[in-house]
Amino acid sequence: MLERYLTAASTYAHWIDYQFLLIAVLVGFWLIVAEGMMFWLIFKFRARDGRATQYITGEETHLKRWITIPHILVILCDIVIIVPAILVWYNIKQVMPPADETVRVIGQQWAWSFQQAGPDGVMDTADDIRTVGELHVKVNTTYHFELMSRDVVHSFAVPSFRLKQDALPGRTISGWFRPNRVGSYDIQCTQMCGIGHGLMAGRIIVETPQDHAAWLLHNSTPAVAGQQALPSPSTVGMDGLATMAEVRR
Ligand SMILES: [Cu+2]
Questions:
Q1: Are residues 232 and 115 in the same domain?
Q2: How far is the centre of ligand 1, averaged over its atoms, from the C-alpha of 157 (Å)?
Q3: Of residues 100 and 236, which shows the higher confidence score?
Q4: Ligand 1 centre from 195 Cα, in Å?
């Protein structure tokens, strides 16, 4: 249902959407019942000439039922919400499916930078690709991410994946996603991280295997050096990133 308003581009996006819908329907139902009852009572017992005000303590059993029965029903609704919520949390945050690829995601004031293996498929080798503000991934591929921060607390968020994870300085936090729809999607920082927080946006580009292989080949360090070509604006090293941050300050 939410997909009509926000694209769902990862395998677990619909689990989150279902959870939101369940909460909205149950809470919405009780909101309408409670507000309807309140306004009906206000109207029914409004001030009228010649009618004395009743003093009701609510201690009688037939009056207490107005509290206890809805109370039990609301607790049952809580259980209906909590059980799938625990399952969704467990399947997204506690369990990591085997990785096809791994990417490193680094937050700093005020940009996201990424590191991923080049055509050799091995991280931390000479052909690694480092990008700023732009992450290229392959569709229908399970990615593990290693999330870190260079300075303050940031939060790596890809709304179309329904993915959000805080990045803490001094820690490497692991997570996963599996994009299942080709396209270009927003990356945001969703943790207030300083005056440039609102500018800390990026893009995640989900490509077909052919397009991704071509991109890897074109942007891996030896290929770029071999062609004597300048890196694209989004493809700079860590030194470049630090320089950019300096300039922004
Ligand atoms: Cu931020």
A1: yes
A2: 10
A3: 100
A4: 9
